[in-house]
Q: What sequence folds into this?
């Protein structure tokens, strides 16, 4: 583990040197450029309408690879001669390759049809053409971004991509920005979240190592002061509680201050002797925290399973990963968080981090970042500080809907790009505009970035935070002369092809309003159209009711009768009719889930028309619907007319208030049970639902009705009591 750096230190110097080297070549990579505007050119298409274009581009990549090989020392001897190609063994091997490839192609048709509007199961959809092309082209070179030595091109691209993602998310990268942000590509959001918790743990414990080094072997730095909630104090004089609650930026600035004060000393080695990385968590607590409880991490009930993994791997422990109940919109309840933080102040229990989920994977809920940051500011004044991490793995690219175009020249005066089909709601927009203030952010390009696996990312507001989770292996890392990203974080080897995929997709489709904002805006539009249809779908004569997780909100200036009329208008009008109605567009932006994952549950009616009151039967009904609308391994994919996913909402994570409210709305409030089974539609397709052949929303309703009618009939045929 190395000491902190700022934007004048070797880490950034070598990155800049790498970019200068690239700039001197025939191809100078950058993220500047105009991007493009034609959404239809960004995808292969639901019927492979752009197949000929894609085939040509892939062929170009193969030909260019061949040209590169032939021109690398062209006088070197060849091995695969025409004579060898005519040999029986060669012909047999080629025949086997062709036959087995055809068998593989046939078997792959059992895969999931992510490209279809009928697929609404998980956070997958069609990949962008530039992402697939970038991945394929770089894959031919097989770069390993663990070190510059194995990725002399794609390491440079990763530095550019990291900055681009930082800017999309709201981190400021101007020359005057201090501290400087930094981002890198990981294999997925799980690894990014683990790294973020790891960094939060280490930044909390790092000043203990510095304090002990000052006492033991660096007496020249004994007078160094740090800001505390009681004013500037000498670090060596702080007690354990005060050390645990220093601000992250102040902690990360200490190594540079020490190096400047003692340039002749090996400061990093002296500090490392007492670090948690060296001692281990058990020994560290025994030495420095014997009388204080173990620090905790607070996560909302909607947390991803990567956080329990992080707690286990980092020695924090499941007991110290504490769920905060959510409110009725499935967002972290700030009042409940306040109660927990008050308890931590009272008990002197330190907090490593508070996690906000920006687009939960089950409900698409966006936690109140603004309120959490305000609460941290208040707690700081009372002596309790912590890192705020945003898990924006799913929702991060939604920032592009509100992000003004950057790193590209203004369009021609005669051309004004159309706005996204749908904007984010007022509340969600406010959260994204506060995102740049959190300490770290996870985002997955391979989710709402429409980029191939594996492509997650982690961004730090203060780049020095990465140095607390850095390791290097001499066999792959040769010092500050090389730009590198591989020494930071959890992973070792990782595909440079994934970086190239993000790079080319971002070059062609900018992560701003004119690019990804258009894709996600249209997906949001389709999701809210489906939400409106679900609310309007069930008639009195139907043997079922449908209850989306998200209720119709109270909108200032819109009465309840007017709100219901606008909802019916959203359901019945075409996209063009809605676009022409400003009031309807504004209303539509405020309804439904925070983003474009839609959770809902059905309940069946008794034969007399009353709604079933048993939670157990309601859950079994939804599970049986899922079984009809999900994929069985190995089955013929062409037989599936609609594909959704399912999840269970449990009071242990979400809180009783949330679960009781949803049970009441389903009509099972008087029934025992604290877990609700819901269905889930992830609406990622960017094609507007109106087609010359009719509305695709009608197709989806038809498939839902068919499954509902058959399942109600099956249940009524199986049970007689109560029907």
A:
């Amino acid at each position: 583990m190395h000491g902190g750096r700022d934007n004048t230190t070797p880490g950034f110097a070598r990155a800049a040197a790498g970019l200068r080297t690239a700039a001197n070549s025939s191809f100078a990579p950058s993220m500047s450029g105009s991007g493009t505007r034609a959404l239809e050119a960004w995808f292969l298409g639901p019927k492979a309408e752009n197949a000929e274009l894609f085939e040509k581009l892939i062929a170009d990549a193969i030909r260019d690879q061949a040209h590169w090989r032939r021109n690398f020392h062209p006088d070197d001897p060849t091995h695969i001669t025409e004579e060898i190609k005519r040999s029986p063994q060669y012909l047999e091997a080629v025949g086997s390759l062709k036959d087995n490839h055809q068998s593989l192609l046939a078997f792959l048709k059992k895969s999931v049809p992510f490209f279809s509007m009928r697929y609404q199961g998980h956070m997958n959809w069609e990949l962008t053409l530039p992402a697939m092309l970038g991945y394929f082209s770089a894959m031919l070179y097989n770069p390993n971004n663990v070190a510059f030595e194995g990725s002399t091109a794609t390491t440079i691209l990763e530095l550019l991509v990291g900055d681009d993602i930082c800017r999309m998310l709201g981190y400021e990268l101007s020359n005057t920005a201090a501290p400087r942000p930094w981002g890198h590509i990981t294999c997925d959001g799980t690894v990014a979240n683990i790294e973020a918790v790891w960094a939060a743990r280490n930044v909390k414990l790092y000043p203990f190592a510095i304090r002990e080094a000052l006492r033991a072997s660096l007496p020249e730095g004994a007078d160094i002061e740090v800001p505390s909630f009681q004013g500037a104090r000498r670090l060596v004089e702080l007690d354990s509680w005060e050390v645990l609650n220093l601000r992250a930026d102040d902690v990360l600035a200490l190594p540079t201050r020490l190096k400047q004060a003692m340039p002749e000393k090996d400061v990093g080695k002296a500090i490392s002797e007492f670090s948690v990385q060296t001692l281990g968590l058990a020994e560290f607590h025994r030495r420095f925290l014997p009388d204080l409880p173990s620090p905790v991490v607070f996560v909302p009930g909607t947390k991803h399973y990567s956080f329990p993994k992080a707690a286990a791997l980092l020695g924090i422990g499941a007991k110290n990963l504490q769920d905060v109940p959510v409110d009725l919109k499935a967002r972290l309840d700030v009042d409940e968080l306040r109660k927990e933080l008050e308890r931590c102040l009272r008990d002197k229990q330190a907090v490593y981090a508070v996690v906000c989920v920006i687009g939960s994977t089950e409900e698409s809920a966006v936690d109140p970042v603004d309120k959490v940051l305000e609460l941290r500011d208040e707690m700081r004044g009372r002596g309790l500080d912590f890192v705020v991490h945003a898990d924006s793995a799913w929702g991060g690219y939604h920032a592009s809907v509100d992000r003004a175009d950057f790193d590209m020249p203004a369009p021609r005066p005669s051309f004004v790009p159309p706005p996204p089909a749908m904007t984010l709601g007022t509340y969600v927009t406010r959260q994204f505009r506060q995102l740049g203030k959190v300490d770290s952010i996870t985002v997955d390009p391979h989710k709402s970035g429409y980029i191939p696996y594996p492509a997650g990312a982690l961004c730090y507001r203060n780049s020095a935070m990465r140095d607390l989770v850095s390791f290097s292996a001499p066999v792959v890392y040769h010092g500050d002369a090389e730009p590198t990203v591989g020494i930071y974080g959890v992973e070792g080897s990782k595909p440079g092809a994934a970086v190239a995929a993000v790079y080319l997709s971002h070059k062609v489709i900018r992560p701003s309003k004119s690019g990804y904002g258009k894709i996600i805006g249209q997906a949001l539009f389709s999701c809210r159209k489906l939400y409106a249809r679900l609310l309007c779908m069930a008639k009195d004569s139907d043997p079922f009711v449908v209850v989306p997780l998200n209720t119709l909100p109270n909108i200032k200036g819109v009465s309840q009768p007017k709100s219901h009329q606008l909802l019916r208008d959203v359901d019945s009008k075409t996209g063009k009719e809605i676009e022409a109605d400003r009031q309807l567009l504004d209303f539509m932006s405020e309804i439904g889930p925070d983003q474009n994952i839609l959770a809902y549950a059905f309940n069946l009616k008794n034969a007399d028309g009353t709604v079933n009151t048993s939670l157990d039967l309601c859950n079994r009904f939804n599970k049986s619907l899922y079984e009809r609308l999900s994929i069985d391994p190995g089955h013929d994919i062409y037989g599936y007319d609609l594909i959704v996913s399912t999840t269970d909402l449990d009071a242990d994570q979400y809180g009783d208030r949330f679960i009781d409210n949803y049970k009441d709305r389903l009509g099972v409030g008087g029934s025992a049970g604290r877990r609700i089974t819901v269905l889930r539609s992830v609406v990622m397709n960017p094609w507007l639902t109106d087609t010359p052949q009719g509305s695709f929303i009608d197709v989806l309703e038809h498939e839902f009705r068919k499954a509902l009618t058959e399942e109600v009939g099956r249940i009524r045929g199986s049970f007689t009591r109560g029907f």
